[in-house]
Amino acid sequence: MDPSEQISSIVYTQTNSSYSFVLQSYVRNRRFNSSSTPKPTIIVTPLNESHVQAAVICSKNIGLQLKIRSGGHDYEGISYVSDEPFLILDMFNLKSISIDIESETGWVQAGATLGELYYKIAEKSRLHGFPAGVCPTVGVGGHFSGGGYGPMLRKYGLTIDNVVDAQIVDVNGTILDRKSMGEDLFWAIRGGGGASFGVILSYKIKLVRVPGIVTVFRVEKTLEQNTTEIVYKWQNVADKIDSDLFIRVLLQPITVKGSKGRNKTIRASFISLFLGDSERLVSVMNDGFPELGMTIKDCIEMSWIDSMLYWFGLGNGNPLEAMLNRTTKSVNFLKRKSDYVQKPISKEGLEGLWKKLIELGKTGLVFNPYGGKMSEIPATETAFPHRKGNIYKIQYSVNWNEEGSEAEKNYTVQIRRLHDFMTQFVSSSPRAAFLNYRDLDIGVNHHGNNSYTEGRVYGTKYFLGNFDRLVKVKTLVDPDNLFRNEQSIPPLPFNKEGDNASSSSAAPSSSASSKLLSYHFVFSPLNFLLSLLTLCMVIITVS
């Protein structure tokens, strides 16, 4: 196909009739889908790797910020929103997945979803799986690169602990694999967020073995059913119990009918995946966590792939093909935050927490246990540092449907007040946070003269002692900071006269550069952009 024809099929300008549909299809937070939300100059939806290369070179040469979106689940919308002129490189068409059961590996492109990945694995084997998340529409690119997790993390670790190779387009538009990118960059894109270093094209994953039968359960308790004692005990066993067992706790303020009318209380939902049958699960629970009162009647046995449907909320007789649906029933306004707990919260502390949750009225918490494999992997093994010493991770969660700034202020103030209240119970110096639960409250980078200083504020919370190594990698591979966002890894500042030895690596290749310089544009800015994309595609095609 002629490059100009390819451009028309993958590029959407603001005057294109499909522009709004393409933009909004992967917006997962209504806070960033209003008439006042900044919009990209263009959206590029690559159909092959050369289109990604062209977009990178184009963005670099025209000085337009490049935002990279795979599934759109970034909680703060930074993959598709910016306060400066930008283009979106929307990876949703790059969704190829190949599974090789003989070698127990697979290649998955960044635009594929977790549901699509699990479905492809199940097509080949019901005795293999992958330790990733429990939302089917989440894109692989961001989920993997930020250290995505799921209910097998205590057995097999994170997504990135099971990645053995990757392909990335670097600042020069070159496609690199693990060997050609080097171990430092390969380390960085496993937990450090790929969008700071290039455009992730695909990951090679190591499949994990799962039993033919797994067991799930969901047990709910309220304050009137001894929730304080049960949650307190959960804190003391959840990271130490059999690593085949993952028990998440969902805490929500609710209103129930009582003899004296409607009363506010807390509901604690214990949601589990066990890599084994119900008989062994009951034995494990009786030995380690009898306080929950879980019995074999609470257990549901199924295959691992069906357990993913269960965790997705699609387990009511839906076929596996339901995993392939990329649309969501509804998109809410939402805000998320995170914390890590390293010492059990006392019973008195929990009772204070219940009061705070009821007082605030809407915000909920999710406790996700660590231990097992997570405690065996050194904090420096990948860029993701939150390993041994963490009992569990907290997700703060609030959703709402009401339109308007007052509603947003109300709910975001709620979640921030709860986060402030929890300061006494969570990690400190620094107060750690999880990159994939993106939270701009903890710091924003304006990419000016103070970029490194600003980046260090949030960077040490997300990456602890790994932040400095990430900065060194960034400085080596992208010293001019092409790949940037509101919370990206900043490069080290360098002398404006060019004493940064790496700065030359940010320039286009000599052949590409000479061709670009010899091409004289006399168009409007938008036509210039489209023409440059066409030229970049020609150069890549003939190179």
Structure description:
The protein is α+β, with helices and mostly antiparallel strands. The chain is 32% helix and 20% strand. It contains 18 helices and 18 strands. Mean pLDDT is 92; it is low at 496-523. The relative contact order is 0.13. The longest helix is centred in the C-terminal third of the chain and has 18 residues, at 525-542. A seven-stranded antiparallel β-sheet has the order 15-12-14-13-17-18-16. It has a five-stranded antiparallel β-sheet with strand order 5-6-10-8-9. A four-stranded mixed β-sheet has the order 1-2-4-3, with helices on both faces.
Whole-number average pLDDT? Answer: 92
Secondary-structure content class = alpha+beta
Poorly predicted runs are 496-523
Total helical elements: 18
Helix content: 25-40%
Identify the overall geometry.
Answer: globular
Instruction: Tell me the strand order in the biggest sheet.
Output: 15-12-14-13-17-18-16
Rg on CA atoms, Å: 24 Å
Q: How many extended strands?
A: 18
Distance between the termini: 17 Å
Percentage of residues in strands: 15-25%
Main pleated-sheet profile: 7 strands, antiparallel
